[in-house]
Amino acid sequence: MSTLKEGDKAPDFTAKDQNGNTVSLADHKGKNIILYFYPKDDTPGCTAESCDFRDNYQSLLSKGYDVIGVSTDDEKSHKKFETKYSLPFTLISDTEKAIVEAYGVWVEKNMYGKQYMGTARTTFIINGDGIITHLISKVDTKNSSQQVLDLVK
C-alpha cells in the first residue's frame, strides 16, 4: 500500500479534470484538500463514496476543505459520472497512472482468485502547505465524508 504517511509532503501532480481543464496540486496551495482515490466511475462502492462526498460537500467546504476525486478513468467517463450524480467537485483523470503510483495506491489486488493491478481506495487530507495531515486507508464508502469530518474537527 502507500508508503506515504501523515506528515509527508504530498506529491504534486498535473492532470486533466472531467471538463478537460488542467489541474495540479500546486493550484491549490494555501487550501485544504481532500484527495480521494477510487477504483472506477459508476460502480457501486465508488458511486456511494462520491455521492457521500457530494451530499456533505457544503459541510466540508464550510470547514475549509475542497474535494478532488482521482481514478484511472478517462475524462469522458468522469464527465458522465459527474453529470449522472450531480457531483460538484473536480474529478481527475489519471489514465497514465502517474498520480496513483506517486501516492502509492496502485497495488496488486485479488478478486475471486484473480490477481490484477488496481487502485486501492484511499483518502488523503492535505493542508494548505501541501502536507498530508491524515490518511484513510480503510474507507467506509457510505460514510467517507464523516470519516474525514471526524478527523478534521
| CATH homology group | Glutaredoxin
Give the % helix.
25-40%
Uncertain segments: none
The name of the CATH topology is Glutaredoxin
Overall structural class, as computed from helix and strand content, comes to alpha+beta
Instruction: Using the alpha-carbon principal axes, give the shape.
Output: globular
- What's the average pLDDT? 94
User: What strand line-up does the widest sheet have?
Assistant: 2-1-5-4-3-8-9
Residues in β-strands, percent: 25-35%
- What is the number of beta strands? 9
CATH architectural label: 3-Layer(aba) Sandwich
| Overall structural domain count | 1
Q: Give the CATH level 1 class.
A: Alpha Beta
Using only C-alpha atoms, the radius of gyration works out to 14 Å
Number of helices: 5
Termini separation comes to 27 Å
Catalytic activity: a hydroperoxide + [thioredoxin]-dithiol = an alcohol + [thioredoxin]-disulfide + H2O
Domain Thioredoxin: 4-153
Protein name: thioredoxin-dependent peroxiredoxin
Enzyme class: oxidoreductase
Short précis:
This protein is of the alpha+beta class and 153 residues long. 27% of the residues lie in helices and 30% in strands.
Write up what this structure looks like.
With 153 residues, the protein is of the alpha+beta class. It has one domain (14-141): Glutaredoxin (3-Layer(aba) Sandwich), CATH 3.40.30.10. It is built from five helices and nine strands. It has helices at residues 44-55, 57-62, 75-85, 98-102, 144-151; strands at 14-17, 22-24, 32-37, 65-71, 90-93, 106-111, 114-119, 122-126, 132-136. The radius of gyration is 14 Å and the shape is globular.
